[in-house]
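cron nightly-structures :: item 1 of 1
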Amino acid sequence: MKNVLQRLLAGELNVDEAEAELRRVQLDELGGRARLDFGRPGRRGLPEVVLAAGKAPADVARLAVALATAQGQACLSRLTTEHHAAVEAAAGQAGLEVIPYGGAAARVRRPGFEPAFGGGRVAVVTAGTSDLDAAEEVRMLVEACGHQARLEADIGVAGLHRLLGPLAELMAWDADVLVVAAGMDGVLPGVVAGLVDQPVIGLPVSTGYGAGGEGQAALLTMLQSCSTGLTLVNIDNGVGAGAAAVLIAARAAAARRKRPGPARPRSAAAAPRR
C-alpha cells in the first residue's frame, strides 16, 4: 500500500490506476476458484495460510506460487503427500523454494526473501513427538512473521522430570509467549501455565484413544485447568495457536522498542529443534 501511495505522489500512477492496484492488493482471484487476501499482512500482521485439506493438489500449488510470487512467501497447512509433490513441482518451475515444517505444513518462498524482523520470541513445547505436526504449524507462522521460534519436544507429564530443564532454558531465553501442544490427557499446558508468568496457549492435539480419543480429552482438560490465565485453541489448530502467539509476541516486541536500552540481538534467534 505504501508503495502504491508513493508512486501516486511521484506521478507514476494516476488516481484510477492507484485505486485499481489497491483493490488488487486487498483481493485477487484465481480462475474463479479462490480469492487470495493480499492485504491481510498489512491489516493484521499475519499471512494468509492456504488450507490444503479438501483442495486438489494442483489448486494448492497454484495458490502457493501466486502468494509467494506476489508477497515473497506462502504458508500451507494440512498437506498430503500428493499436495507436497504438486507444490514442489510448481515451486521448482517458478524458481521458488519450499521449506517443510513437519510432515503436513510448508512455506514456499522466493529465494532471498526474509520477512521483516519482528523481534518477538515464541517458545513451542510438545508433550510427545506425536504432537509435532501441530507444533510445526505454530513455528511456521512465527517464522513467516519474522519472529524467533524455539521448539522443545517430548517433555510431557509421563516423565515430568523431563520438563524442568527445557522449561528453565526457555525462561532464560526470555520467551514472550509459550504454545504448549499435548494430546492424550492434555495436562502439560496447565502444568506449564502454573510455573511461568508468560502467556501460555494450550494446543490440544488429536493423539489419544478410548473415551477421550481424537483430542476431546485434551481439549476438556485444558478448558478445566486449575491454572488461571491458560488460553487455548481448538483441536489440532496449530495455525490458530501460531497466529495468537505472533500477535502477543509482536505487541511485546513493540513495547520493548519503545523502552530505552539495548535491543535483543538477532543472532540469538538460533534455536535447537527436536
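cron nightly-structures :: done
The mean pLDDT is 87.
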